[in-house]
Specification:
658 residues; alpha/beta; Glutaredoxin; Ubiquitin-like (UB roll); 5 domains; five-stranded mixed sheet; iron-sulfur; metal-binding; 4 iron, 4 sulfur cluster binding
């Protein structure tokens, strides 16, 4: 790839890349995010490539791993034309162009609609096929690609209505996808596709039209707040780093994302890595940094793979390295893999981990903006925050502040999971209500169950209930309610969820992930977990509720870092919202949701029992007795609550008494 040495050259590359995409009569974008790959989308991609190679009616443009080098020469259809728009200045044709239909088969990032994966999008018509299987590929190629026919059984249907176009599906129609705009729409492994969408134009603008101070002012004016959970003002953070006397500075991207059920940053790194990289480049220019680090958890191998490819391509095009776009600005980017410690999402623990030390937070001040990585001033933002920056530079702070509430402008990506019909990755303007997210975009509660609560902000967040459904999803509104946006995880729960068990689960997670450095977090969370375990086992006392409140207040007031300070939130929020469930567990030894194993009371319906004795034979505690062809009974004193009888009864005569 030839280096892009000026803004004019970037414009020419963009024009060629757009023309190449527009010249393709059909583009097949196979979701190659982690979720769809797990569902078999890799096999779908391979099968479609095989079908395309064997089809003489069309010329084929494959994905980069096929379209480049010897592999391309062996597999491209006769007469097809391929262009690498960053190679030599003119586009570098590799074969003679002919007037015939052309098909581009590409791997994209996550489309977001995880519930319906694997997903296949067909452009230019915007058709979205859902729950595609490898055996569907031949029909897709022959009917839709060659003959323009829809395959109705693969289209999304809701309330009896069929949706052919992706943008018309309620899940997508009610979103505002800005950060996620390219995810699912471009080849995630090809820099030219990002450039075709206007990629790196914001970088060109700051390098050739703006001073570093003007960049900081623009981001400050936009009031971009950190999307990692704290909501700290990004522009102010950058200004603090830029004002330090120390001239060696760093830019660090937090891609650790350790919250259970959260995958917003992962999807950006997998589906649109250059947008985040461009944001980091702009930050580096603004604060005078020459080196940057992306800290990614090792459990994200695909994100790491695509980031490495993106960095290599950007270096080859001259968009990373020295003298970027013919200027004196240079920036080098490195990737560090985390070992899975949740605490390394905290800034000082993260930088310590990059330095090769044990990931543990330190006492502040000094803060990261003063003494961060290697003791130098450091800008530390998460993936989604950096991905917002190019849009702010391109379209201006005024445009950005026109989205969402004044004090929390812009959009926010959420991972919508749990007992909701449409799980997946969504993006909505700040200020959108929970009701809109869960019932409009999410389609309501799965199996039409009753909504009970939503856990927001991951293990450090709190529970919101039905009366909170119209709360504005922004930093300040949620803080007033004792909750937080966090990184953006939303776990929806129905009436079959035990809230005491939910509190125990999240406390177990935070206690296990505590680095152990400070006593309040190390010992306090352990004591809280022990109390919660007693309660769900049926051994709780009324006094335990006071003990939990006292411990929660002590931990949140004295813990060293954000992990400890927010660890009690799930417990306190569930105690306030569902006090009756705690009392039932302690006083009545009863779990209304039938979740807590030790409180399950198995009973046999004599009307349904046929006296086959299968339940008695499967009981390891000999707690079931009776005579053949007569109803059997369970001795609750002997029953160990294992549930073996429930699974072995062929007549559905055994149930859990709630």
């Amino acid at each position: 790839m030839q280096k892009i040495n000026s803004r004019d050259e970037l414009n020419r590359v963009q024009d060629r890349a757009k023309k190449q995409i527009e010249a393709t009569s059909s583009r097949i974008l196979i979701c190659a995010g982690t979720g769809c790959l797990a569902g078999g989308s890799g096999l779908i991609y391979e099968r479609l490539c095989e079908l395309a190679k064997d089809c003489p009616q069309v010329s084929i443009e494959f994905g980069p791993e096929i379209a480049h080098g010897d592999a391309y020469k062996k597999t491209a259809a006769p007469g097809s034309a391929q262009k690498n728009v960053c190679e030599n200045g003119e586009g570098g044709e590799t074969a003679q162009e002919v007037d015939q239909p052309s098909v581009g088969i590409k791997k994209s990032g996550c489309h977001g609609f995880c519930e319906m994966g694997p997903l296949v999008r067909i452009e230019p018509h915007g058709i979205l096929y859902t729950k595609v299987k490898p055996e569907d590929c031949e029909e897709i190629f022959e009917k839709t690609i060659l003959n323009g026919e829809l395959i109705h059984r693969l289209l999304y249907t809701q309330n009896g209505k069929e949706y052919a176009g992706q943008e018309e599906i309620p899940f997508y129609k009610k979103q505002t996808r800005l950060v996620l705009k390219n995810c699912g729409h471009i080849d995630a492994e090809h820099i030219e596709e990002y450039i075709a969408t206007g990629g790196y134009q914001a970088l060109a603008k700051v390098l050739h039209q703006m001073t570093p101070a003007e960049v900081v002012d623009e981001v400050s004016e936009a009031n971009l707040r950190g999307r990692g959970g704290g909501g700290f003002q990004t522009g102010y953070k950058w200004s603090q780093v830029a004002s330090q006397k120390e001239t060696v500075r760093y830019v660090v991207c937090n891609g650790d994302e350790g919250d259970p059920g959260a995958f917003m940053d992962r999807s950006i790194m997998e589906g649109d890595p250059h947008k985040m990289i461009e944001g980091m480049l702009i930050a580096a220019y603004a604060v005078g940094a020459r080196e940057g680090y992306i800290y990614v958890r090792a459990e994200y191998p695909l994100a790491i793979q695509r980031l490495k490819l993106a960095i290599a391509q950007a270096e080859e095009c001259g968009l990373l390295g020295e003298n970027i776009m013919g200027t004196q600005f240079g920036f080098h980017l490195h990737i560090n893999r985390g070992a899975g410690a949740f605490v390394c999402g905290e800034g000082s623990a993260l930088t310590a981990s990059i330095e090769g030390k044990r990931g543990m937070p330190r006492v502040k001040p000094p803060r990261t903006v003063e003494q961060g990585l290697f003791g130098k001033p450091t800008v530390l933002n998460n993936v989604e925050t950096f991905a917002n920056v190019p849009m702010i530079i391109d379209d201006g702070a005024k445009w950005y502040r026109g989205i969402g509430p004044e004090n929390s402008p812009g959009t926010k990506a959420f991972a919508l999971t749990g007992s909701v019909k449409n799980t997946g990755l969504i993006e909505v303007p700040m200020g959108t209500s929970l009701r809109e997210v869960i019932f409009d975009i999410g389609g309501g509660i799965k199996n039409d169950q009753e909504f009970k609560a939503v856990q927001i902000g991951g293990p450090s967040g709190g529970c919101l209930v039905e009366k909170d459904l119209d709360v504005s999803l922004d930093f300040d509104s949620l803080k007033k309610m004792g909750a937080m946006i966090g990184s953006g995880g939303l776990v929806v729960m129905d009436q079959h969820t035990c809230m005491v068990e939910v509190a125990r689960f999240f406390m177990s997670f935070t206690q296990r992930e505590s680095c152990g450095k400070c006593v309040p977090c190390r010992e306090g969370t352990k004591r809280m977990l022990e109390i919660l375990e007693r309660i769900v086992e049926g051994n709780g006392e009324i006094e335990d509720l006071d003990r939990l409140e006292s411990l929660a207040d002590m931990i949140s007031s004295t813990a060293l870092c954000g992990l400890g300070k927010s660890a009690p939130l799930p417990v306190i929020s569930t105690m306030k919202a569902f006090p009756e469930e705690y009392m039932e567990h302690i006083v009545d030894k009863k779990c209304r949701a039938g979740v807590c194993q030790s409180m399950k009371n198995y009973v046999i319906d004599p009307e349904k029992c046929k006296g086959c004795s299968k339940c008695a034979r499967s009981c390891p505690a000999s707690a079931i007795s009776g005579q053949i062809k007569s109803p059997f009974t369970i001795d609750s004193e002997k029953c160990i609550k294992c549930g073996a009888c429930l699974g072995n009864c062929p007549f559905g005569a055994i149930s859990i008494e709630v």
